[in-house]
Amino acid sequence: xxxxxxxxxxxxxxxxxxxxxxxxxxxxxxxxxxxxxxxxxxxxxxxxxxxxxxxxxxxxxxxxxxxxxxxxxxxxxxxxxxxxxxxxxxxxxxx
Length: 95
Hints:
The protein is an alpha+beta fold. The protein has one domain: 3-Layer(aba) Sandwich (DNA Methylphosphotriester Repair Domain). Helix content is 37%, strand content 17%. β2 (36-39) and β3 (44-47) form a beta hairpin. The longest helix is centred in the last third of the chain and has 12 residues, at 83-94. The termini are far apart.
């Protein structure tokens, strides 16, 4: 990436699940470094307890430290586990 573009990119800590060990994921959750999970193909993020997220394939799963991080990467809230945030997101596009 050219230097001129590198300073314009947001600082992102998104982690791909397929590149992490199970113990690293557990430790990240325990330490509060992993708070949300997302599907990199569908660009959807949600809570770690979401049943939809738990069915996701490991190779498609990414982790975020905050909602702001997920939103900055253009992920949308999950319609199952984050209904209020999803409705707000959806209404923002409809109006």
